[in-house]
Design goal:
heterodimer, A: alpha+beta, PH-domain like, 2 domains, three-stranded antiparallel β-sheet, 4 helices, B: 455 residues, alpha+beta, 3 domains, seven-stranded antiparallel β-sheet, 12 helices, flat
Chain lengths: 163, 455
Protein backbone atom coordinates (compact mmCIF):
# COMPACT_ATOMS: atom_id res chain seq x y z
CA UNK A 1 0.00 0.00 0.00
CA UNK A 2 1.46 3.39 -0.95
CA UNK A 3 1.31 6.37 1.36
CA UNK A 4 -1.24 8.12 -0.83
CA UNK A 5 -3.94 5.97 0.75
CA UNK A 6 -2.45 5.52 4.19
CA UNK A 7 -4.91 5.56 7.06
CA UNK A 8 -5.24 8.92 8.84
CA UNK A 9 -3.77 8.16 12.25
CA UNK A 10 -4.76 4.65 13.31
CA UNK A 11 -5.93 1.96 10.91
CA UNK A 12 -8.63 1.60 8.29
CA UNK A 13 -11.79 -0.10 9.50
CA UNK A 14 -12.54 -2.84 6.97
CA UNK A 15 -16.05 -3.59 5.76
CA UNK A 16 -17.76 -6.88 6.55
CA UNK A 17 -16.48 -9.98 4.71
CA UNK A 18 -20.17 -10.57 3.99
CA UNK A 19 -19.92 -7.90 1.28
CA UNK A 20 -17.49 -10.03 -0.74
CA UNK A 21 -19.57 -13.11 0.09
CA UNK A 22 -22.73 -11.45 -1.21
CA UNK A 23 -21.08 -10.27 -4.42
CA UNK A 24 -19.44 -13.64 -4.96
CA UNK A 25 -22.81 -15.33 -4.55
CA UNK A 26 -24.41 -12.98 -7.06
CA UNK A 27 -21.53 -13.58 -9.46
CA UNK A 28 -21.72 -17.38 -9.06
CA UNK A 29 -25.49 -17.51 -9.51
CA UNK A 30 -25.28 -15.19 -12.51
CA UNK A 31 -22.56 -17.33 -14.10
CA UNK A 32 -24.50 -20.56 -13.58
CA UNK A 33 -27.67 -19.06 -15.07
CA UNK A 34 -25.78 -17.67 -18.05
CA UNK A 35 -24.01 -21.00 -18.58
CA UNK A 36 -27.31 -22.91 -18.53
CA UNK A 37 -28.90 -20.48 -21.01
CA UNK A 38 -25.91 -20.72 -23.35
CA UNK A 39 -25.63 -24.51 -23.26
CA UNK A 40 -29.34 -25.33 -23.46
CA UNK A 41 -30.03 -22.61 -25.99
CA UNK A 42 -27.22 -23.56 -28.34
CA UNK A 43 -27.94 -27.28 -28.09
CA UNK A 44 -31.64 -26.69 -28.82
CA UNK A 45 -30.66 -24.61 -31.86
CA UNK A 46 -28.51 -27.48 -33.02
CA UNK A 47 -25.16 -25.74 -32.83
CA UNK A 48 -21.99 -27.86 -33.03
CA UNK A 49 -20.80 -29.06 -29.63
CA UNK A 50 -17.53 -27.09 -29.62
CA UNK A 51 -19.37 -23.74 -29.67
CA UNK A 52 -21.04 -24.00 -26.24
CA UNK A 53 -17.83 -25.50 -24.83
CA UNK A 54 -15.83 -22.50 -26.08
CA UNK A 55 -18.39 -20.06 -24.72
CA UNK A 56 -18.39 -21.87 -21.38
CA UNK A 57 -14.63 -21.52 -21.12
CA UNK A 58 -14.85 -17.79 -21.88
CA UNK A 59 -17.65 -17.40 -19.36
CA UNK A 60 -15.70 -19.22 -16.67
CA UNK A 61 -12.60 -17.12 -17.34
CA UNK A 62 -14.67 -13.94 -17.01
CA UNK A 63 -16.24 -15.23 -13.81
CA UNK A 64 -12.83 -16.08 -12.36
CA UNK A 65 -11.56 -12.59 -13.20
CA UNK A 66 -14.71 -11.08 -11.66
CA UNK A 67 -14.16 -13.17 -8.54
CA UNK A 68 -10.65 -11.76 -8.10
CA UNK A 69 -11.85 -8.17 -8.73
CA UNK A 70 -14.65 -8.53 -6.18
CA UNK A 71 -12.23 -9.89 -3.58
CA UNK A 72 -9.69 -7.12 -4.14
CA UNK A 73 -12.35 -4.44 -4.27
CA UNK A 74 -13.96 -5.52 -1.01
CA UNK A 75 -10.54 -5.53 0.65
CA UNK A 76 -9.96 -1.94 -0.52
CA UNK A 77 -13.03 -0.51 1.17
CA UNK A 78 -12.15 1.11 4.43
CA UNK A 79 -13.18 3.96 6.67
CA UNK A 80 -11.74 5.80 9.61
CA UNK A 81 -13.78 7.80 12.10
CA UNK A 82 -11.92 10.74 13.51
CA UNK A 83 -12.87 13.54 15.88
CA UNK A 84 -14.09 15.94 13.22
CA UNK A 85 -14.25 14.05 9.95
CA UNK A 86 -14.73 10.68 8.35
CA UNK A 87 -12.26 9.20 5.86
CA UNK A 88 -13.43 6.64 3.32
CA UNK A 89 -11.25 4.91 0.75
CA UNK A 90 -12.36 2.54 -1.96
CA UNK A 91 -11.57 1.13 -5.39
CA UNK A 92 -8.79 -1.30 -6.20
CA UNK A 93 -8.31 -0.07 -9.76
CA UNK A 94 -9.74 3.45 -9.70
CA UNK A 95 -8.66 4.39 -6.22
CA UNK A 96 -10.35 7.11 -4.29
CA UNK A 97 -10.31 8.65 -0.86
CA UNK A 98 -12.99 10.98 0.52
CA UNK A 99 -12.87 13.23 3.55
CA UNK A 100 -16.24 14.40 4.87
CA UNK A 101 -16.21 16.79 7.83
CA UNK A 102 -19.04 16.01 10.25
CA UNK A 103 -19.96 19.69 10.22
CA UNK A 104 -20.75 19.49 6.52
CA UNK A 105 -23.09 16.51 6.65
CA UNK A 106 -26.68 17.23 5.73
CA UNK A 107 -28.03 13.78 6.53
CA UNK A 108 -27.00 10.16 6.72
CA UNK A 109 -28.79 7.26 5.03
CA UNK A 110 -28.71 3.61 5.87
CA UNK A 111 -29.86 1.36 3.03
CA UNK A 112 -30.31 -2.38 2.88
CA UNK A 113 -31.97 -4.07 -0.08
CA UNK A 114 -33.46 -7.57 0.16
CA UNK A 115 -30.17 -9.15 -0.91
CA UNK A 116 -28.20 -7.15 1.62
CA UNK A 117 -30.69 -8.05 4.34
CA UNK A 118 -30.18 -11.73 3.55
CA UNK A 119 -26.48 -11.23 4.22
CA UNK A 120 -27.21 -9.02 7.26
CA UNK A 121 -25.32 -6.03 5.90
CA UNK A 122 -26.28 -2.45 5.10
CA UNK A 123 -24.67 0.55 3.44
CA UNK A 124 -24.23 3.99 4.98
CA UNK A 125 -24.43 7.02 2.71
CA UNK A 126 -23.28 10.49 3.80
CA UNK A 127 -24.81 13.51 2.08
CA UNK A 128 -23.38 17.02 2.03
CA UNK A 129 -24.70 20.09 0.23
CA UNK A 130 -22.61 19.00 -2.75
CA UNK A 131 -23.98 16.30 -5.05
CA UNK A 132 -20.37 15.48 -5.92
CA UNK A 133 -19.61 14.06 -2.49
CA UNK A 134 -19.53 10.32 -3.07
CA UNK A 135 -19.25 9.10 0.50
CA UNK A 136 -20.77 5.65 0.75
CA UNK A 137 -19.70 2.69 2.81
CA UNK A 138 -21.31 -0.54 1.63
CA UNK A 139 -21.25 -3.85 3.42
CA UNK A 140 -21.32 -2.82 7.04
CA UNK A 141 -22.80 -5.28 9.54
CA UNK A 142 -26.34 -4.04 10.21
CA UNK A 143 -25.63 -3.17 13.84
CA UNK A 144 -22.43 -1.33 12.94
CA UNK A 145 -24.29 0.61 10.23
CA UNK A 146 -26.90 1.75 12.73
CA UNK A 147 -24.21 2.70 15.27
CA UNK A 148 -22.27 4.65 12.65
CA UNK A 149 -25.38 6.47 11.50
CA UNK A 150 -26.32 7.48 15.03
CA UNK A 151 -22.80 8.60 15.84
CA UNK A 152 -22.45 10.55 12.58
CA UNK A 153 -25.83 12.18 13.01
CA UNK A 154 -25.13 13.33 16.56
CA UNK A 155 -21.63 14.54 15.64
CA UNK A 156 -23.03 16.28 12.58
CA UNK A 157 -25.56 18.15 14.69
CA UNK A 158 -22.95 19.11 17.24
CA UNK A 159 -20.49 20.46 14.68
CA UNK A 160 -22.89 21.74 12.02
CA UNK A 161 -21.57 24.70 10.06
CA UNK A 162 -23.75 26.93 7.92
CA UNK A 163 -23.37 26.85 4.17
CA UNK B 1 -44.56 48.36 8.76
CA UNK B 2 -46.12 46.32 11.50
CA UNK B 3 -44.50 45.27 14.71
CA UNK B 4 -43.99 41.56 15.35
CA UNK B 5 -46.94 40.39 17.39
CA UNK B 6 -46.43 38.60 20.70
CA UNK B 7 -46.69 35.16 19.14
CA UNK B 8 -50.40 34.90 18.45
CA UNK B 9 -51.49 31.42 17.33
CA UNK B 10 -51.83 31.39 13.55
CA UNK B 11 -55.47 31.63 12.60
CA UNK B 12 -56.79 30.32 9.31
CA UNK B 13 -59.42 33.06 9.08
CA UNK B 14 -58.88 36.30 7.22
CA UNK B 15 -56.78 38.57 9.38
CA UNK B 16 -57.94 41.96 10.45
CA UNK B 17 -54.68 43.55 9.43
CA UNK B 18 -54.67 45.12 6.00
CA UNK B 19 -53.85 42.82 3.16
CA UNK B 20 -52.73 43.87 -0.27
CA UNK B 21 -53.64 42.79 -3.75
CA UNK B 22 -51.61 42.33 -6.87
CA UNK B 23 -51.84 44.83 -9.64
CA UNK B 24 -55.32 44.76 -11.25
CA UNK B 25 -53.57 44.58 -14.62
CA UNK B 26 -52.25 41.09 -13.75
CA UNK B 27 -54.85 39.11 -15.77
CA UNK B 28 -54.26 41.34 -18.77
CA UNK B 29 -50.49 40.85 -18.59
CA UNK B 30 -50.84 37.11 -18.16
CA UNK B 31 -53.07 36.73 -21.22
CA UNK B 32 -51.68 39.60 -23.22
CA UNK B 33 -50.71 37.48 -26.18
CA UNK B 34 -54.22 35.96 -26.41
CA UNK B 35 -55.90 39.35 -26.12
CA UNK B 36 -53.74 40.80 -28.86
CA UNK B 37 -54.34 37.77 -31.07
CA UNK B 38 -58.12 37.94 -30.66
CA UNK B 39 -58.18 41.67 -31.20
CA UNK B 40 -56.00 41.45 -34.28
CA UNK B 41 -57.94 38.60 -35.84
CA UNK B 42 -61.49 39.74 -35.13
CA UNK B 43 -61.35 43.51 -34.91
CA UNK B 44 -62.31 44.03 -38.55
CA UNK B 45 -65.19 41.57 -38.30
CA UNK B 46 -66.62 43.36 -35.27
CA UNK B 47 -66.38 46.75 -36.93
CA UNK B 48 -68.19 45.47 -39.99
CA UNK B 49 -70.80 43.73 -37.86
CA UNK B 50 -69.99 40.56 -39.74
CA UNK B 51 -69.06 38.23 -36.90
CA UNK B 52 -68.46 34.59 -37.73
CA UNK B 53 -68.83 31.66 -35.29
CA UNK B 54 -65.05 31.53 -34.72
CA UNK B 55 -64.98 35.14 -33.61
CA UNK B 56 -67.87 34.47 -31.21
CA UNK B 57 -66.04 31.51 -29.71
CA UNK B 58 -62.90 33.57 -29.29
CA UNK B 59 -64.88 36.38 -27.74
CA UNK B 60 -66.59 33.98 -25.34
CA UNK B 61 -63.21 32.53 -24.35
CA UNK B 62 -61.89 35.99 -23.79
CA UNK B 63 -64.88 36.95 -21.65
CA UNK B 64 -64.62 33.78 -19.59
CA UNK B 65 -60.92 34.40 -19.19
CA UNK B 66 -61.56 37.96 -18.12
CA UNK B 67 -64.11 36.85 -15.51
CA UNK B 68 -61.77 34.16 -14.21
CA UNK B 69 -58.87 36.58 -14.19
CA UNK B 70 -60.85 39.15 -12.27
CA UNK B 71 -62.01 36.54 -9.77
CA UNK B 72 -58.49 35.27 -9.37
CA UNK B 73 -57.26 38.79 -8.82
CA UNK B 74 -59.99 39.41 -6.21
CA UNK B 75 -59.10 36.21 -4.38
CA UNK B 76 -55.35 36.78 -4.37
CA UNK B 77 -54.21 38.63 -1.30
CA UNK B 78 -50.88 38.92 0.41
CA UNK B 79 -49.76 40.35 3.68
CA UNK B 80 -46.97 40.04 6.19
CA UNK B 81 -47.84 38.61 9.56
CA UNK B 82 -45.73 37.22 12.36
CA UNK B 83 -42.58 36.97 10.27
CA UNK B 84 -44.38 35.19 7.48
CA UNK B 85 -45.39 36.32 4.06
CA UNK B 86 -48.84 34.89 3.50
CA UNK B 87 -50.39 34.54 0.09
CA UNK B 88 -54.00 33.45 -0.40
CA UNK B 89 -54.91 32.36 -3.91
CA UNK B 90 -57.38 30.21 -5.80
CA UNK B 91 -60.79 30.75 -7.29
CA UNK B 92 -62.33 27.31 -6.99
CA UNK B 93 -60.02 25.56 -4.57
CA UNK B 94 -58.36 28.01 -2.28
CA UNK B 95 -54.74 27.86 -1.29
CA UNK B 96 -52.86 29.64 1.40
CA UNK B 97 -49.11 29.80 1.15
CA UNK B 98 -46.92 30.84 4.03
CA UNK B 99 -43.33 31.80 3.44
CA UNK B 100 -41.24 32.24 6.56
CA UNK B 101 -39.10 35.31 6.11
CA UNK B 102 -36.11 33.79 7.90
CA UNK B 103 -36.02 31.03 5.28
CA UNK B 104 -35.75 33.49 2.41
CA UNK B 105 -32.41 33.15 0.65
CA UNK B 106 -32.82 35.85 -1.90
CA UNK B 107 -35.50 37.79 -3.70
CA UNK B 108 -35.22 38.61 -7.36
CA UNK B 109 -37.31 41.02 -9.36
CA UNK B 110 -38.04 39.99 -12.94
CA UNK B 111 -39.74 42.11 -15.57
CA UNK B 112 -40.82 40.12 -18.58
CA UNK B 113 -41.42 42.24 -21.64
CA UNK B 114 -45.21 42.56 -21.40
CA UNK B 115 -45.08 43.29 -17.68
CA UNK B 116 -42.50 45.94 -18.37
CA UNK B 117 -44.83 47.68 -20.83
CA UNK B 118 -47.24 48.19 -17.94
CA UNK B 119 -44.55 49.02 -15.38
CA UNK B 120 -45.16 45.76 -13.50
CA UNK B 121 -42.73 43.27 -12.02
CA UNK B 122 -42.67 39.75 -10.63
CA UNK B 123 -41.18 39.00 -7.24
CA UNK B 124 -39.35 35.68 -7.21
CA UNK B 125 -38.54 34.37 -3.78
CA UNK B 126 -35.85 31.79 -3.24
CA UNK B 127 -36.85 29.74 -0.22
CA UNK B 128 -34.54 27.35 1.63
CA UNK B 129 -35.89 23.83 1.77
CA UNK B 130 -38.10 24.29 -1.26
CA UNK B 131 -36.77 22.29 -4.18
CA UNK B 132 -36.60 24.92 -6.87
CA UNK B 133 -37.24 28.61 -6.69
CA UNK B 134 -40.66 28.77 -5.20
CA UNK B 135 -42.87 31.56 -4.12
CA UNK B 136 -43.54 33.91 -6.94
CA UNK B 137 -45.73 36.98 -6.64
CA UNK B 138 -46.84 38.33 -9.99
CA UNK B 139 -47.49 41.05 -10.93
CA UNK B 140 -46.88 44.08 -8.77
CA UNK B 141 -46.11 47.64 -9.71
CA UNK B 142 -42.32 47.86 -9.90
CA UNK B 143 -42.05 50.36 -7.04
CA UNK B 144 -44.23 48.18 -4.80
CA UNK B 145 -42.22 45.08 -5.68
CA UNK B 146 -39.00 46.84 -4.75
CA UNK B 147 -40.46 48.11 -1.51
CA UNK B 148 -41.81 44.66 -0.61
CA UNK B 149 -38.44 43.09 -1.31
CA UNK B 150 -36.68 45.58 0.93
CA UNK B 151 -39.25 45.03 3.67
CA UNK B 152 -38.98 41.25 3.46
CA UNK B 153 -35.18 41.27 3.48
CA UNK B 154 -35.09 43.69 6.40
CA UNK B 155 -37.55 41.52 8.32
CA UNK B 156 -35.54 38.43 7.50
CA UNK B 157 -32.38 40.00 8.84
CA UNK B 158 -34.22 41.20 11.93
CA UNK B 159 -35.66 37.73 12.52
CA UNK B 160 -32.26 36.11 12.12
CA UNK B 161 -30.59 38.67 14.35
CA UNK B 162 -33.20 37.98 17.06
CA UNK B 163 -32.42 34.28 16.91
CA UNK B 164 -28.65 34.69 16.96
CA UNK B 165 -27.87 37.94 18.80
CA UNK B 166 -24.10 37.49 18.49
CA UNK B 167 -24.16 37.23 14.74
CA UNK B 168 -23.17 40.64 13.50
CA UNK B 169 -22.96 39.56 9.87
CA UNK B 170 -26.72 39.46 9.50
CA UNK B 171 -27.49 42.71 11.25
CA UNK B 172 -27.20 46.20 9.95
CA UNK B 173 -29.96 46.76 7.44
CA UNK B 174 -32.72 46.41 10.04
CA UNK B 175 -33.30 50.13 10.28
CA UNK B 176 -34.88 52.12 7.48
CA UNK B 177 -34.20 49.91 4.50
CA UNK B 178 -35.54 52.44 2.04
CA UNK B 179 -33.17 55.16 3.07
CA UNK B 180 -29.99 53.27 2.20
CA UNK B 181 -28.82 54.60 -1.13
CA UNK B 182 -27.61 51.98 -3.54
CA UNK B 183 -24.01 52.20 -4.53
CA UNK B 184 -23.07 51.11 -8.05
CA UNK B 185 -19.91 49.01 -8.05
CA UNK B 186 -19.52 48.24 -11.73
CA UNK B 187 -21.39 48.90 -14.91
CA UNK B 188 -20.94 47.02 -18.15
CA UNK B 189 -19.77 49.25 -20.95
CA UNK B 190 -21.99 48.78 -24.02
CA UNK B 191 -19.11 49.17 -26.46
CA UNK B 192 -17.08 46.59 -24.57
CA UNK B 193 -20.05 44.18 -24.61
CA UNK B 194 -20.50 44.53 -28.36
CA UNK B 195 -16.76 44.09 -28.95
CA UNK B 196 -16.60 41.05 -26.68
CA UNK B 197 -19.52 39.42 -28.53
CA UNK B 198 -17.74 40.01 -31.84
CA UNK B 199 -14.39 38.70 -30.56
CA UNK B 200 -15.85 35.63 -28.86
CA UNK B 201 -15.09 31.95 -29.43
CA UNK B 202 -18.54 31.68 -31.07
CA UNK B 203 -17.64 34.40 -33.55
CA UNK B 204 -14.41 32.60 -34.35
CA UNK B 205 -16.22 29.28 -34.83
CA UNK B 206 -18.75 31.01 -37.06
CA UNK B 207 -16.06 32.65 -39.15
CA UNK B 208 -14.24 29.35 -39.65
CA UNK B 209 -17.41 27.44 -40.57
CA UNK B 210 -18.58 30.20 -42.93
CA UNK B 211 -15.19 30.28 -44.63
CA UNK B 212 -15.10 26.49 -44.95
CA UNK B 213 -18.68 26.26 -46.24
CA UNK B 214 -18.31 29.18 -48.60
CA UNK B 215 -14.88 28.02 -49.69
CA UNK B 216 -16.16 24.56 -50.60
CA UNK B 217 -18.79 26.01 -52.93
CA UNK B 218 -16.42 28.56 -54.44
CA UNK B 219 -13.92 25.81 -55.18
CA UNK B 220 -16.71 23.73 -56.71
CA UNK B 221 -17.57 26.74 -58.87
CA UNK B 222 -21.09 26.88 -57.46
CA UNK B 223 -21.33 30.45 -56.23
CA UNK B 224 -25.09 30.50 -55.40
CA UNK B 225 -24.50 27.42 -53.27
CA UNK B 226 -22.44 29.57 -50.93
CA UNK B 227 -25.80 30.87 -49.69
CA UNK B 228 -25.99 27.86 -47.37
CA UNK B 229 -23.74 29.92 -45.12
CA UNK B 230 -26.69 32.27 -44.65
CA UNK B 231 -28.63 30.26 -42.01
CA UNK B 232 -25.38 29.83 -40.08
CA UNK B 233 -24.88 33.57 -40.22
CA UNK B 234 -28.44 34.30 -39.12
CA UNK B 235 -28.14 31.85 -36.24
CA UNK B 236 -24.93 33.50 -35.11
CA UNK B 237 -26.43 36.97 -35.27
CA UNK B 238 -29.54 35.87 -33.36
CA UNK B 239 -27.51 34.21 -30.62
CA UNK B 240 -25.32 37.25 -30.15
CA UNK B 241 -28.32 39.61 -30.26
CA UNK B 242 -30.00 37.55 -27.54
CA UNK B 243 -26.88 37.89 -25.41
CA UNK B 244 -26.68 41.58 -26.13
CA UNK B 245 -30.27 42.05 -25.03
CA UNK B 246 -29.81 39.88 -21.93
CA UNK B 247 -26.63 41.61 -20.79
CA UNK B 248 -27.70 45.11 -21.83
CA UNK B 249 -27.37 47.61 -19.02
CA UNK B 250 -25.60 45.11 -16.78
CA UNK B 251 -25.09 46.79 -13.43
CA UNK B 252 -23.63 45.46 -10.20
CA UNK B 253 -24.48 47.50 -7.16
CA UNK B 254 -24.21 47.17 -3.43
CA UNK B 255 -27.37 46.97 -1.35
CA UNK B 256 -27.89 46.13 2.32
CA UNK B 257 -28.96 42.61 1.32
CA UNK B 258 -25.88 41.88 -0.79
CA UNK B 259 -24.66 42.53 -4.29
CA UNK B 260 -27.42 43.29 -6.72
CA UNK B 261 -27.17 42.40 -10.39
CA UNK B 262 -29.50 44.06 -12.87
CA UNK B 263 -29.55 43.35 -16.57
CA UNK B 264 -31.67 43.11 -19.68
CA UNK B 265 -32.94 45.22 -22.55
CA UNK B 266 -36.34 43.63 -23.13
CA UNK B 267 -36.81 41.46 -20.03
CA UNK B 268 -35.37 43.33 -17.09
CA UNK B 269 -33.97 41.11 -14.33
CA UNK B 270 -32.85 41.99 -10.86
CA UNK B 271 -31.08 39.50 -8.70
CA UNK B 272 -29.52 39.80 -5.28
CA UNK B 273 -26.50 37.74 -4.28
CA UNK B 274 -26.33 37.18 -0.54
CA UNK B 275 -22.62 37.30 0.15
CA UNK B 276 -22.81 34.84 3.04
CA UNK B 277 -24.05 32.21 0.59
CA UNK B 278 -21.30 32.62 -1.99
CA UNK B 279 -19.53 29.29 -2.46
CA UNK B 280 -16.83 30.25 -4.92
CA UNK B 281 -16.04 32.15 -8.11
CA UNK B 282 -14.95 31.35 -11.66
CA UNK B 283 -12.95 33.84 -13.70
CA UNK B 284 -13.08 33.01 -17.43
CA UNK B 285 -10.62 34.40 -19.93
CA UNK B 286 -11.25 33.21 -23.50
CA UNK B 287 -8.12 33.20 -25.61
CA UNK B 288 -9.23 36.13 -27.79
CA UNK B 289 -9.99 38.26 -24.77
CA UNK B 290 -6.67 37.71 -23.08
CA UNK B 291 -4.75 40.06 -25.35
CA UNK B 292 -7.26 42.81 -24.53
CA UNK B 293 -7.10 41.95 -20.83
CA UNK B 294 -10.79 41.11 -20.57
CA UNK B 295 -12.37 38.55 -18.30
CA UNK B 296 -15.72 37.39 -17.01
CA UNK B 297 -16.74 36.29 -13.55
CA UNK B 298 -19.38 33.81 -12.44
CA UNK B 299 -20.35 32.89 -8.92
CA UNK B 300 -21.72 29.81 -7.17
CA UNK B 301 -24.43 30.70 -4.70
CA UNK B 302 -25.91 28.02 -2.47
CA UNK B 303 -29.44 27.27 -3.59
CA UNK B 304 -29.10 28.77 -7.06
CA UNK B 305 -27.75 25.77 -8.95
CA UNK B 306 -26.27 26.38 -12.36
CA UNK B 307 -29.55 27.31 -14.07
CA UNK B 308 -29.48 28.66 -17.59
CA UNK B 309 -26.29 29.17 -19.54
CA UNK B 310 -27.23 26.95 -22.47
CA UNK B 311 -28.14 28.03 -26.00
CA UNK B 312 -26.69 31.45 -25.46
CA UNK B 313 -29.10 32.07 -22.63
CA UNK B 314 -27.27 33.95 -19.94
CA UNK B 315 -26.56 32.03 -16.76
CA UNK B 316 -27.99 33.32 -13.50
CA UNK B 317 -24.52 32.94 -12.07
CA UNK B 318 -22.88 35.71 -14.12
CA UNK B 319 -21.78 38.71 -12.11
CA UNK B 320 -19.94 40.47 -14.94
CA UNK B 321 -20.16 39.11 -18.51
CA UNK B 322 -17.06 40.99 -19.67
CA UNK B 323 -14.81 43.61 -18.16
CA UNK B 324 -11.22 44.63 -17.67
CA UNK B 325 -9.44 41.89 -15.75
CA UNK B 326 -8.62 44.06 -12.74
CA UNK B 327 -12.27 45.12 -12.37
CA UNK B 328 -13.40 41.50 -12.69
CA UNK B 329 -10.90 40.34 -10.09
CA UNK B 330 -11.91 43.13 -7.77
CA UNK B 331 -15.54 41.99 -8.14
CA UNK B 332 -14.47 38.41 -7.44
CA UNK B 333 -12.81 39.55 -4.24
CA UNK B 334 -15.93 41.50 -3.28
CA UNK B 335 -17.94 38.31 -3.78
CA UNK B 336 -15.59 36.48 -1.42
CA UNK B 337 -15.89 39.25 1.17
CA UNK B 338 -17.46 37.00 3.81
CA UNK B 339 -14.34 34.87 3.78
CA UNK B 340 -11.88 37.74 3.89
CA UNK B 341 -11.72 38.92 0.25
CA UNK B 342 -8.78 36.70 -0.71
CA UNK B 343 -7.11 37.34 -4.07
CA UNK B 344 -7.18 34.29 -6.40
CA UNK B 345 -4.08 35.63 -8.16
CA UNK B 346 -2.01 35.38 -5.00
CA UNK B 347 -2.32 31.60 -4.80
CA UNK B 348 0.80 29.90 -6.18
CA UNK B 349 -0.34 27.55 -8.95
CA UNK B 350 1.65 24.42 -9.67
CA UNK B 351 1.40 22.67 -13.07
CA UNK B 352 1.45 18.87 -13.41
CA UNK B 353 4.90 17.30 -13.64
CA UNK B 354 6.22 16.67 -17.22
CA UNK B 355 5.41 12.94 -17.00
CA UNK B 356 1.73 13.92 -17.11
CA UNK B 357 2.17 14.16 -20.91
CA UNK B 358 1.19 10.50 -21.11
CA UNK B 359 -2.29 11.22 -19.72
CA UNK B 360 -2.83 14.86 -20.76
CA UNK B 361 -0.41 15.60 -23.62
CA UNK B 362 -1.87 19.01 -24.51
CA UNK B 363 -3.99 19.91 -21.52
CA UNK B 364 -1.13 19.65 -19.03
CA UNK B 365 0.36 22.89 -20.37
CA UNK B 366 -2.76 24.80 -19.42
CA UNK B 367 -3.72 23.24 -16.10
CA UNK B 368 -2.43 24.21 -12.72
CA UNK B 369 -3.69 24.25 -9.17
CA UNK B 370 -2.75 25.38 -5.73
CA UNK B 371 -3.77 25.54 -2.09
CA UNK B 372 -3.43 29.05 -0.70
CA UNK B 373 -3.93 30.27 2.84
CA UNK B 374 -7.55 31.24 2.09
CA UNK B 375 -8.43 29.69 -1.24
CA UNK B 376 -8.29 26.47 -3.22
CA UNK B 377 -7.65 27.37 -6.85
CA UNK B 378 -7.48 25.40 -10.07
CA UNK B 379 -7.04 26.67 -13.59
CA UNK B 380 -7.47 24.88 -16.89
CA UNK B 381 -8.26 25.39 -20.54
CA UNK B 382 -6.60 27.14 -23.45
CA UNK B 383 -9.53 28.33 -25.61
CA UNK B 384 -11.32 29.42 -22.48
CA UNK B 385 -9.03 29.63 -19.50
CA UNK B 386 -11.10 29.23 -16.37
CA UNK B 387 -9.82 29.89 -12.90
CA UNK B 388 -11.99 28.28 -10.22
CA UNK B 389 -11.58 29.42 -6.63
CA UNK B 390 -13.27 28.14 -3.48
CA UNK B 391 -12.59 29.57 -0.02
CA UNK B 392 -11.61 26.97 2.59
CA UNK B 393 -14.61 27.96 4.69
CA UNK B 394 -16.96 26.80 1.89
CA UNK B 395 -15.47 23.39 1.14
CA UNK B 396 -18.00 20.60 1.52
CA UNK B 397 -15.78 17.56 1.20
CA UNK B 398 -12.46 16.63 -0.38
CA UNK B 399 -11.65 13.69 -2.60
CA UNK B 400 -8.49 12.10 -3.88
CA UNK B 401 -8.62 10.06 -7.08
CA UNK B 402 -6.07 7.90 -8.81
CA UNK B 403 -6.76 5.82 -11.90
CA UNK B 404 -4.57 2.94 -13.09
CA UNK B 405 -2.56 5.10 -15.53
CA UNK B 406 -2.02 7.76 -12.96
CA UNK B 407 -0.78 5.15 -10.50
CA UNK B 408 1.81 3.98 -12.99
CA UNK B 409 2.98 7.56 -13.55
CA UNK B 410 2.83 8.59 -9.90
CA UNK B 411 0.05 11.15 -10.38
CA UNK B 412 -3.26 11.79 -8.61
CA UNK B 413 -6.18 14.25 -8.60
CA UNK B 414 -7.60 16.29 -5.76
CA UNK B 415 -11.30 17.22 -6.09
CA UNK B 416 -13.09 19.83 -4.04
CA UNK B 417 -16.82 19.22 -3.67
CA UNK B 418 -19.01 22.32 -3.77
CA UNK B 419 -22.78 22.82 -3.84
CA UNK B 420 -24.31 22.86 -7.36
CA UNK B 421 -23.02 25.76 -9.41
CA UNK B 422 -20.39 26.65 -11.98
CA UNK B 423 -17.45 26.37 -9.58
CA UNK B 424 -15.48 23.10 -9.63
CA UNK B 425 -11.98 23.07 -8.23
CA UNK B 426 -10.03 20.10 -9.59
CA UNK B 427 -6.30 19.76 -9.04
CA UNK B 428 -5.55 17.36 -11.89
CA UNK B 429 -2.50 15.18 -12.42
CA UNK B 430 -0.51 16.44 -9.50
CA UNK B 431 2.55 14.59 -8.26
CA UNK B 432 1.23 11.70 -6.17
CA UNK B 433 3.84 12.41 -3.51
CA UNK B 434 2.24 15.82 -2.85
CA UNK B 435 -1.46 15.10 -3.19
CA UNK B 436 -2.09 13.47 0.16
CA UNK B 437 -0.26 16.33 1.83
CA UNK B 438 -2.42 18.83 -0.10
CA UNK B 439 -5.56 16.99 0.99
CA UNK B 440 -4.56 17.01 4.64
CA UNK B 441 -3.57 20.68 4.48
CA UNK B 442 -6.81 21.65 2.73
CA UNK B 443 -8.78 19.65 5.29
CA UNK B 444 -7.00 21.36 8.18
CA UNK B 445 -7.46 24.84 6.67
CA UNK B 446 -11.14 24.13 6.00
CA UNK B 447 -11.63 23.00 9.60
CA UNK B 448 -9.94 26.13 10.95
CA UNK B 449 -11.95 28.36 8.62
CA UNK B 450 -15.21 26.71 9.69
CA UNK B 451 -14.49 27.15 13.39
CA UNK B 452 -13.53 30.78 12.75
CA UNK B 453 -16.80 31.45 10.96
CA UNK B 454 -19.08 29.71 13.43
CA UNK B 455 -17.23 31.30 16.34
Amino acid sequence: MDDLFDPPGNDWQPVSPALARMRHTVLAVGTVVAALVVVVGLLLLGAPVWLPVLLLVVLLALAAWGWVVVTRNARWWGYAERDEDLYIKHGAVFRALVVVPYGRMQYVDVQAGPLEQAFKIASVHLHTASPGTSARIPGLPAAEAARLRDRLTSLGEAQAAGL
Amino acid sequence: MTDPQPSAPPTPTTPDRPYKRLSPLTPLVRSFVLVVAVAASSWDDFLRGDVGPLAWILLAMLLAGAVYGAASWLRTKYWIEADELRVDTGVISRQSRRIRVDRLQGIDIAQPFVARLFGLAELKMDVAGAGDREGSLAYLPLREAEALRETLLARRDAARARRAPGDQAEQGPTAMPHAVPEHVLARLDLGLLVMSLLISPEAFAFLVSALVLGGVFVVLGNLPGAAVALPVFIGFVLTQLRRLSAYYGFTVSETPAGLQVRRGLIDRNTQTITLSRVQGVVVSEPVFWRRFGWARVDVSVAGYGSGGGENGRPAVSTVMPVGPRNVVLWLARRLLEETGSPDPDEVVLVPPPPRARWVAPVGRHFMSSGVGPHLLVSRSGFLNRRTHAVPHARVQSLQLHQGPWQRRLGLADLHVDSPPGPVRVRAQHRDAADVRGLLEEANRLARDARTRLTG
